[in-house]
Design brief:
Largest sheet: 7 strands, antiparallel
Structural class: alpha+beta
Distance between the termini: 37 Å
Radius of gyration: 25 Å
Strand content: 15-25%
Oligomer: single chain
Length: 493
Amino acid sequence: MSLEGAYTLIARLGEGGMAEVFKAIKRGPDQFEKPIALKRILPHYADQEGFIKMLSAEARLQAGLDHPNIVQLLDFFKHGDTFMIALEYVPGKNLKKMIFDAQQRNVEIPWEAFVYIVSETLKGLDFAHKRKGPKGPLSIVHRDISPQNILISYEGHVKLSDFGIALANIEREQTQSGILKGKYRYLSPEQLDGKQIDHRSDLFSIGVVLYELLAQKHPFDQGSDFETMKKISAVHYTPLTDLNLDLPPALIEVTQACLQKEYTERPEDAHVLRQRLLEEQDQNWLTNGSGFLKELIEKIYPKPSDRTEPSIENTPVLSMHGTPITGVVHPTESVISVVNEPTERESRKKSWPWILFGMLAIGIVGAVFFTRKNSPQPHPIPNSPKIVVEDKLPKEKPATSPAPSPPNESKTTTSVQVKKAPEEMGVLRIYGPKGAKVFIAGHKIGTLPMKDRKLEAKPYLVSIKPRNLPIRLFRIEVLPGKLEVIRWSQKNK
């Protein structure tokens, strides 16, 4: 079989929550070769039809994010029974690895370098947030900003990665009650609380990254995922002003502005945040940041051997069935092409017969829409979930206000504020290890085994924490009059 158009695996670079990553060589005519990053979807996602359709749409979306600070998506295809994503290969390290290696080799990184890296990341993020399609704004939110997803090339360039995977990561599940994958340490409080989000969720994550870089410690780290998430949900951390750091006061101020619990109190957008950072940047870094970053990387990785990956023979490369995968991957079907939407010009050609109908429809329904109050936010954030349970509780005096208490004011694990009509309620049933603690949006609701819980019909973020075992998170949607079941198992990894 010809190698033209095929990918030859060179090294296995790592594995995330949804895919494993390889360095590969793209083959072409006349001995053409190009290094590529090849992502293979993990086996337990490969047979989910809804997931693949969603992922192909996200891949097509990311393919349109043509920006120098965003890793380019080149293809999304099928190889046998496995789905793969071909991405631009960035010779370098991710930010987390670079920081770790610098610490191990006693190379000091100045704060100006961190400001440059974050400001370059914000350029790509701002482009994505404001990206428009034929039908208007795409409302892209990265949702997985972290040092692992910020790539630093050996030439001093900064690129943000994992747009398509990250979007799929938060919005979809392995099953209807699937596991929420992600780097919990960098999620915004509204993500952890199961609320809808907009672009300012990414700015909170940027603030966590910037704080960690400047202070050399994570603002919310408590040693365990669950305790860390509780701190994030409450936005409880030590202010940079209390750490006696030798930093410009305005830089500290803008970092902490990102870490506001209320999204409306954060910077307006990524562009505004970037401009505020650049106001504090050293002039030399403003004019030659890429060159300075390249020199810094050369200090961290002075030897050629520091910049090579292990060979494919020395890394575990397995198929979805646990057997060795062939060293050559042949795309058999492009998934992106199957779901491509018509271009803007094609859409106009096909839509003209509907113009008169559309004008008539607008006239009919216009009065209805203009009587509604319009929210200024593109993604309104609903109130926290109100948990209604079947347990018999001591009778209390009615509350004077229907508003729920802040999560840190009481350790009560159950509260009933508003009674919903039966058709607006659903039931949640949970199976798992005996003694495991169950939380919804960070609030404990019981210990397994426990009774079914009646919940308001809406999406929830459920955490199950067994004894001496890792915590598992599930994104579920409770439907009116329906039973939703979550099953914890060791396979949920």
